[in-house]
Amino acid sequence: MAFLSVLLLGVAFVVGSLPLGHWLLSRMGVNPRVNSAYNLGLENVLRRVGPGLAAASAALDFTKGFVAVLMASSLHVPELCVLAALAAYLGHLNPPRLLYGDMPPRGRGNLVLLGVLAGLSVAGGLSLWLTVLPVVVYAAALGFWGYVSGATLAGLLVFAGLVALSPLGIPAKLGALGLLVAATWRFKENLGRILDRTEPRLGEDVPVAGKRPDQVVTAFMIHPMTLENFWQSPRFSWMKPLVERGVISEASVRRLAQNLRPMKVGELRGIRTTEGKEIRCYLLSSPLLPDVFRDQPELATRRAIEGARLAHELGAEVFGLGAFWSVVGNKGLDVQAAVPEITITNGGAYTSGTIKAAIPGILKHFQETGRNLKEATAGIVGANGVVAFGIARTIAPQVGRVIMIGRDMERLTRSANTLRRAAKETEIIATTDYGALKEADLIFSATSDPNPVIFPQHVKPGTWIFDEGRPADVDESVRQVPGVRVIPGGVVRPPGGMTSNIDLQFGEGAVPACLAETLIIAATGEHDRKSLGPQTLTENINFFVEQAERLGFTVVD
């Protein structure tokens, strides 16, 4: 009897893990990993695969749960039937890799649950009220809240409670509790989205690439700059008082952040170009803090790849890498190679373009204060980088002296020689000493350093600083130096009146230029203009500047 029970539970697990719906959709030329209700919502799945295929796939999942319980009922032990229901559900959620490879489908398993409840009612020996009432509660919760995941957990909570109060044995009670625990673990991301208010409700219009001609869908990867940013998400905010009271250590939070896969934390709404095209943008995050990008680049690249896959599953056609994500994986090249199904950009071209657009205004305002540009000294911080060197090339002919500061003196010397040939009347100095900035009237900074690099001892009173660094290159204490003006760089205001549930730290209605590039690529359909790798083409910089103006994007200066 014991051997047969274990055998039947093993068979139930295998039956539950059979990829019947996956195989059906695959044979019909549909990618089930992308076209699933878990990712897109039922309405979009019906539109993409049609009601016939959707119904057939759902029926196969229902049958798996029903058959698993039906087989276990041959021993006429109700407790075994409940355990078989759990085995089938676990098999569906965690199928062996040999069936799917390294990327199993991410389905909810609701149809499998419905099948096991039907099997428990028809053949499992459970009374009708034990199996019907959870379905009634599920339907009521779904109608009231509109969240499929929340309704499923409500139904399973009722089922576990009813079984606990019934005369069934301990195995049945553990099996019912196991169903609730397994579903809660499966829906943890959905619960987080409910807290963040980013989970779509049943029947809500979910934007998907290609669904409407007047709408495009993008996704953008962000990360917290500090722990304070980490608390911004409601799903994590409950941890803040515990850390402040010492109940949870900051080190524990950092370890947790490193183990979290990318998740949808927000959405940008209200962006509409002058031509009337709506741009929707999902905000995705794997909450790695800045030091992790420096110390664990392999982890950061892996998370960026996972983020690109999630963006594709959510229906986006362009995926942007923001802040330190923009430099992982050879500045996006490795990410694009791993996920060729979606266009990926690091935003470098338009970021350079916004600087190009902002510098004339900054220099004009500087002159209006009564200072002579030809007698001014400009400091360029991060001059080894593409963006900062581009700034140097732009302003060198207009000022009397340029101080180029970087970490690699050999590369810096080569760049300085190039600049001397282009601006022969300007004195060019190359150094790794930040103390040289004390002589600068204007400072332009664009580094990828996770920490501030410019402090009060580097700045003289009255200096203007254009800070392109993300996070900021300028320490907050610099603002206390008399007359210093700090101007944030690469800030763009999209057209139409943007709203967001996440504070991107760029001011109300504004986004970083790298995010704006993601939006512009989707709006224009010019996917070949994406920015990848260390090189930025001048023609692409000009393209984004021109298209941004045409579409209604404005640079904030």
Description:
This protein has 557 residues and is α/β, with parallel strands linked by helices. It is 50% helix and 12% strand. It has 25 helices and 15 strands. It has helices spanning 2-17, 20-27, 37-40, 42-49, 51-72, 78-93, 97-100, 110-122, 128-145, 148-165, 170-186, 188-196, 227-230, 234-237, 239-244, 250-259, 290-295, 297-313, 328-331, 333-338, 348-368, 386-395, 409-422, 513-524, 538-551; strands at 215-222, 263-272, 278-285, 318-321, 343-345, 377-381, 401-405, 427-431, 442-445, 464-467, 485-488, 491-493, 499-500, 511-512, 554-555. The strands form 3 sheets. A 6-stranded mixed β-sheet has the order 5-4-1-3-2-13, with helices on both faces. Helix 23 (409-422) links the parallel strand 7 and strand 8. The longest helix has 22 residues, at 51-72.
Short structural summary:
With 557 residues, this protein is α/β, with parallel strands linked by helices.
Quick tags:
single chain, 557 residues, alpha/beta, six-stranded mixed β-sheet, six-stranded parallel β-sheet, 25 helices, 15 strands, elongated
What is the topological layout?
Blueprint: H1 2-17, H2 20-27, H3 37-40, H4 42-49, H5 51-72, H6 78-93, H7 97-100, H8 110-122, H9 128-145, H10 148-165, H11 170-186, H12 188-196, E1 215-222, H13 227-230, H14 234-237, H15 239-244, H16 250-259, E2 263-272, E3 278-285, H17 290-295, H18 297-313, E4 318-321, H19 328-331, H20 333-338, E5 343-345, H21 348-368, E6 377-381, H22 386-395, E7 401-405, H23 409-422, E8 427-431, E9 442-445, E10 464-467, E11 485-488, E12 491-493, E13 499-500, E14 511-512, H24 513-524, H25 538-551, E15 554-555
Parallel strand pairs: 1-3, 1-4, 4-5, 6-7, 6-9, 7-8, 9-10, 10-11
Antiparallel strand pairs: 2-3, 2-13, 12-14, 12-15
